[in-house]
Design a protein that fits this description.
Elements: H1 5-27, H2 131-134, H3 147-150, E1 154-155, H4 158-165, E2 202-203, E3 206-207, H5 236-239, H6 274-282, E4 289-290, E5 295-296, E6 321-323, E7 347-348, E8 357-358, E9 361-362, H7 371-376, E10 380-383
Antiparallel strand pairs: 1-7, 2-3, 4-5, 6-10, 8-9
Length: 408
């Protein structure tokens, strides 16, 4: 059977069309991946361990892990619980829960709470231990085991933070628009830091993980509001060559395992520059008055004119204290500390957010006179004035604190 002339013309046109598509496909180049990190690079947007709201993780909704809808209900019509609109307006940022309601009530605490809590909205949330556990390696420090619990101790006061960031660094001037957690974290950029022992923390010059963004870097453009610590120039080793990482638990006189990841790296190249980060709020006037603490938030001078735990050095540092390992390795007396070497970032059972494990040593609860002694001897073995320093019965904080120079 022969094709008619009309059919042949149709076949020729079809072949030309298909051939053209092949040429177009070959000429088409897949666009390169974004040059700046996006939400999908973040811990929340990760498809392996990102956000997965329990109520949306099964049919009929069945949203995939990391999906934006696990936090944002763009039409308030899916299976989550959307807050009632305030004043007839849509819920702020289309979130499934109120943005912020106090020290123990906020959007972030919908997931960052005890993973076994009946109202925990995140499916398979891992334990969220404190810094003494995660970076310090003290696995006996199992309380708190979540962020909400940490803020239920002696903690950064979230009301104070919300007020402090108001009208600063492009944060909104309306308190209700500011989530205090976003003062230190960009939820669309933050990465997870498991502090896995011996993990490769530097790849291609970048820190593998960074959970924080400087408040002074804040911008409503999430691509501009970058992570802090992931790029070269943003680590403790960049802040000063005199940084010395503390031992990881348990301490020994010849410790070879250092914070924050249990590796033998001790110069701070695997830790974000905590000093520059914290001094965004604690480093300049005007001082902020805390109603809860009934005092001004502490302004700290970590520079050459400030604290001996910082860059200050009078050349006689060894005349005040004798240091424990690893701070006795050479004749360098002005070792510089990271803020996290002594303090918990969220909250602690101890006053002033002091850690319960320091330099590989466990610290008793600091809730009474004398307990500071046990905190300080985590790094200092003895002193040259025994008639003044009377040991466990003495409260070091009576004489020593920030700023601390020339011994006092």
């Amino acid at each position: 059977m022969f094709f008619s002339g009309k059919a042949i013309k149709y076949l020729i046109c079809l072949l030309v069309f298909l051939f053209s598509l092949i040429l177009i496909k070959k000429a088409y180049v897949q666009p390169p991946p974004p040059t700046i990190p996006t939400y999908t690079w973040s811990a929340h947007g990760n498809t392996s361990y990102g956000v997965l709201r329990t109520s949306l993780s099964t049919p009929p909704d069945d949203y995939g892990r990391g999906n934006c809808a696990h936090c944002h209900e763009q039409h308030a019509s899916i299976g989550g619980s959307d807050p009632a609109p305030a004043g007839g307006s849509p819920s702020k940022y289309e979130l499934f829960q109120a943005l912020y309601g106090g020290q123990q009530s906020g959007f972030c605490f919908g997931c960052h709470k005890d993973r076994l809590a009946a109202d925990c909205r995140q499916s398979s949330m891992p334990e969220q231990y404190n810094y003494s556990y995660m970076a310090g390696g003290d696995t006996t420090a199992t309380s708190p085991n979540d962020i909400k619990e940490a803020f239920n101790q002696v903690a950064h006061n979230l009301d104070d933070i919300q007020t402090f960031i108001r009208n600063k660094w492009n944060f909104s001037n309306t308190l209700g628009d500011n989530n205090p957690c976003s003062g230190c974290h960009n939820p669309h950029r933050a990465k997870r830091d498991p502090h896995t022992s011996g993990s490769p923390r530097i790849v291609g010059g970048n820190l593998v993980v960074s959970a924080v963004s400087r408040p002074s870097d804040h911008n409503q453009n999430n691509n501009a509001w970058r992570l802090w610590g992931d790029d070269p120039g943003e680590r403790m080793s960049d802040y000063t060559p005199n940084y010395q990482a503390p031992c990881r638990y348990p301490w020994s006189s010849t410790c070879s395992s250092f914070e924050p990841d249990g590796s033998n790296t001790m110069n701070g190249s695997n830790l974000f520059d905590t000093v520059t980060f914290c001094l965004d709020c604690h480093g300049s006037a005007p001082q902020f008055y805390s109603n809860r603490l009934n005092r001004n938030v502490k302004i700290i001078d970590w520079g050459a004119g400030g604290d001996v735990h910082g860059l200050y050095n009078d050349g006689n540092w060894d005349s005040y204290f004798i240091q424990k390992s690893p701070y006795n390795q050479n004749d360098l007396y002005n070792y510089v500390l990271s803020c996290l070497d002594c303090h918990e970032p969220h909250g602690s059972r101890n006053e002033y957010l002091l850690r319960q494990e320091v330099n590989g040593n466990q610290v008793p609860v600091i809730a009474q006179t004398g307990r500071w002694y046990y905190f300080c001897i985590s790094c200092h073995t003895s002193v040259d004035e025994p008639e003044i320093h009377v040991g466990p019965s003495g409260d070091c904080s009576s004489c020593h604190g920030h700023p601390f120079k020339n011994g006092f």
